[in-house]
Structures are given as structure tokens and as C-alpha cells.
Amino acid sequence: RRAPDARDASDVLATPPTMTMHAPGATTPHAARSFAHRARTNAVLFLWLGLIHVNIFILACAAVAYPHPGAVAVVAALVTVAVLPRAPPFPRFGVALARSIARAACGYFPATLTFEDERAHLDAARDGQAFVVGLEPHGVLPLSIISFAAYYAHGDEEVYAMKGGFTPTMRSARALASAAIFNVPFVRHLWTWLGLDPISKRRMVDMLRAGRTVVMIPGGVAECMAMERGVETLYLRKRFGFIKVAIQTGAHLVPAFTFGQSEAYGYWRLGPPFVPKRVANWLSETFAFAPMVFWGKFCSPIPYATPLHTVVGKAIPVKQNDNPTNTEVAAKLEEFIDAMTTLFETHKAANGCSGARLRVV
Fold first, then answer.
1. Which of 26, 246, 265, 289 has the greatest number of CB atoms lying within 10 Å of its CB?
2. Is the peptide bond before 91 cis (omega within 30 degrees of 0)?
3. pLDDT for 282-315, tens place per residue?
């Protein structure tokens, strides 16, 4: 399912009909603008999602050219970039680049973010309440994270003012992603500017105790290995860790689901009959990457322009407890799964997925 570019459509509708004739093969002003807009959007999306491929290509070329001094210099430069600090304050050009990517991506799919009760969420956040937003599904790549980046970190001040204002703590919400991605040159800095950090228990606890919001995808890489075409698969039943941290810090749990995420890429995943499933799972656990090949538009890392509609559910209250029992953690996880299932079933028809099925493993 692919959607046309909404902004191109709006340009067409806003243009009054005329009887102007153009020579065969001539480029109309609107067509030129549309082509330039699409080219710019594709370039920004490739910058966001294709830098890993660029790194692989550069390393492959360096390996072929080794031991040429130029090849050694290129590898040394990549290693240097990979260890450069990425802590705030962030450079102004980096923030500006991240804002451009967030806005271009949200317009491309388009990607939307809606709350079942946004006022209650924002009021609680202003009062210092911490939240753990559990976003599902992971998909091939967690593209819907960009909606939260645009909402919390890269939105318009006028919009923030209309919503009653965002405090610095609210603006400092972060998404937590696989630590492996933050070892890749250039990607580690770009994704940091977009509002992501490597996931770790210590990082998560520190943020929540400071009253900040954490966005994470509990299913993680394991969910990629459990995906099935035609079914929304959530890997949640063994994900006790984020629930326990929420209880220990008193952070409220918030289910969020993105409709359309599973259709953004085509993919082929390593597994039977080529290797046993347990070997593929071992590789994903060891390297924190799913062993798969994926493709989007033009067989590139640019995803298909399928609408990504993220719905954020109502918060699940959590009572703070430094030492929750396994039974308490399991019960709260079950409550989260029930809330996620209800969120999915309630909103799937309105988001064009009335026939979709949900599987929680």
C-alpha cells in the first residue's frame, strides 16, 4: 500500500484549471517544482536511512584497495568519526539537519501522531510525571520513531504554545534504540541529533528519575525475527525488563501502535531452509542486528511511502516500588499487553487496517 505525496496533491488542487498548452516534452513549472521536491525528499531520506549502506560501501572499496595509503586513511577517518563524542550541547547544524529530516519524513509517508488523551498526558508531564512509551511494532526499521522526534524535539514553537507550552524536561524526551547502531560512523551522531540514545538500563533509569519521557520499542530485534507477512507480530511476553524499570521509578506505561509500519519495506530474512532458525536467532542476539536484507523504493533504503499512523494510548498508572516481585512485574506486563491489544483493535479500522490481525508472542 503506497500513498501519493500529499503535498504534491495539495499543489495540484490549489492550482486553478487553465487552458495553457505546453510543447511535447516541455517541463511545466509545477512538474519542475514537484520533481525538485521529490528529489530533495529522497535525498534527505537516504541521508537518514542510507548511511549504514554508505559505510559498508566505503569499507568494501577500502578493502579492495588495501594496502593503498588512501584506503588506510579512509578507514582511519571512519574509526575517528566513530569515537567522536556525541554528548550535548549539539551543534546547530546538526539540530537543523535533524529538524529537516524529521519534517521531510513526516511529510513523505505521511507520518502522523495522535493521542487518545493528549491533554492528560501533557498535564502530567508538566507536573514531572515520567513516562515509558512502549511503541510497536518494530518492523524492519522503527521508522515511526521519527514522529516522536518531530513531536518532542523538532516541533514548531507556535504549536508548543498552542498546547500550553513544553517544559525543557518535556522537550528532552528521548527514544532508546539498539546500542549497535551507535557504533556506526556518522549514523551515531545523526541519530543522536534526531533524539535517540543507545538503550541501557542505567540510561533509562536516570531519565525516568529525572521526570523525562522515554520512547522505546520493547520487541526490539527479536521482534524482527518473529515477523510474519500479513500479521502484526509483537514480541512482548518475555519483555519484563522495561516493566520492572517502570515500577522501580514510578514511571507510567503508555502503549503506542503504528499502523502501516510493517508495509514500509520488503525483506528477506535468514532462516530455514538455508540455516536453522536457532542459528539465525543466535546471530541476531549476538550482533544486535537482524540478519535480513530489506529494500524500499527503487530497491534502496528509502522506504515505500506508506502512511504511518501512530496512536498513543492512555497511560497505565504505575505505583513506585524499588523491589517489585516477579508476580507484580508479570501482572503489569499483562496489563500493558491488554492495553496494546485494545488500542490496536479500537483504532485499526480508522487507520485503514480493518482486516489486520495481531499476534503477541
1. 246
2. no
3. 999 888 889 999 999 999 999 999 999 999 999 9
